[in-house]
Write a structure and sequence with these properties.
This protein is an all-alpha fold and about 325 residues long. It has one domain (about 50-320). Helices cover about 75% and strands about 0% of the residues. A two-stranded antiparallel ribbon has the order 1-2. Helix 4 runs antiparallel to helix 7 (about 160-185) and helix 9 (about 205-220) runs antiparallel to helix 10 (about 225-250). The protein is globular and about 50 Å long.
């Protein structure tokens, strides 16, 4: 990687952040969402040129990134518009992948980055805080579902090669995204009321699933390592759920810097994530300790711990692999 281009890229990304901050916080302009989208698209392309081993796929990468960003703006709106935009996106993905116009790895990264970017704008900058009442049975049920999904992902990653595993996971994620997005658009429907009972209060329906699944796609797009992919699933699907289950079961003692979480829950995360030792060796303990600490931080309702842990995991993996 060229050090000069890294500095230039950091300057450009910082400039986009400053422009967006001026639009959103100073001018309070209705065009701030446009500034955000321009920044996200430009950041995605900069990262592509910095890290892609084959920059010749830039046009296809930009197409997937742009279509993903456009499509996610229909999430939670009218079902017909969401489905129509989703069909266009999925058709483009199928054509690009089947005819070899873009490697699967790049496609996964562009899709995840394009969906996460605009969705984060809604959840971070236009988040309405609510007083969250914890229902233990619902929390545990949601975590058991998360563990079951993680088990399926590990079976896929262990059973088939990356190309096929990535394609299967992409299909499963897009199917889940399609169902959740359609349900979210069907305001007042019986199905939405039923499934909303296991969703966290005060968030867009399907938000947690979207963050963790897109985090997975982003990681698969960034790293082609079966062992690290499995460790990601262990940490994000198993350890995160274990922290909640143990924390709700053993509530004492509380963490001094976050009264909403317990020492037992943090230790439960660390113990479960440490199982990654069987896949990446002793580094798993370092990863587990850092991620357990991040998971224990008082992030509030504005930031979902699924996306924070995903980004942290990607950065840690890059430092380790690059080193």
């Amino acid at each position: 990687m060229n050090l000069f281009s890294t500095y230039i890229s950091a300057f450009l990304i910082s400039a986009f952040v400053i422009v967006f901050y001026v639009f959103e916080c100073v001018l309070k302009s209705r065009y701030s969402n446009i500034a955000w989208d321009v920044g996200i698209f430009s950041t995605g392309m900069i990262l592509f040129y910095l890290f892609a081993s084959r920059p010749g796929y830039a046009i296809a990468f930009a197409l997937v990134l742009a279509l993903s960003m456009i499509q996610v703006h229909f999430y939670g709106l009218r079902a017909r518009r969401f489905i129509a935009s989703l069909v266009v996106l999925e058709a483009a993905l199928a054509i690009l992948i089947i005819f070899g116009l873009i490697p699967l790895q790049y496609c996964l990264a562009a899709l995840a980055f394009g969906i996460l970017g605009p969705f984060l704008y809604k959840t971070i900058w236009h988040h309405r805080p609510v007083r969250r009442k914890i229902y233990v049975n619902i929390e545990i049920l949601r975590d058991l579902v998360q563990i079951a999904v993680g088990a399926v992902l590990i079976i896929i990653l262990l059973s088939v090669k990356f190309e096929y595993a990535g394609a299967i996971i992409l299909i499963l994620v897009m199917a889940s995204y399609s169902i959740n997005g359609t349900l979210s658009a069907l305001k007042g429907s019986g199905a939405l009321r039923l499934f909303s009972r296991i969703e966290k209060p005060g968030v867009t329906y399907g938000q947690g699933a979207l963050f963790i699944s897109m985090g997975l796609l982003l990681f698969l797009g960034a790293f082609r390592s079966a062992n690290f992919d499995i460790f990601f699933v262990i940490a994000l699907y198993f350890a995160d759920a274990a922290a909640t289950i143990v924390g709700l079961s053993i509530r004492w003692p509380r963490l001094p810097y976050n009264k909403g979480k317990s020492v037992a829950g943090t230790l439960g995360f660390f113990a479960c994530a440490s199982l990654g030792y069987f896949f990446i060796g002793p580094y798993a303990f370092v990863f587990a300790a850092i991620l357990a600490f991040i998971e224990s931080l008082p992030l509030g309702n504005r930031l979902d711990d699924n996306i924070v842990l995903s980004v942290a995991f990607i950065l840690l993996s890059y430092i380790l692999i690059a080193g």
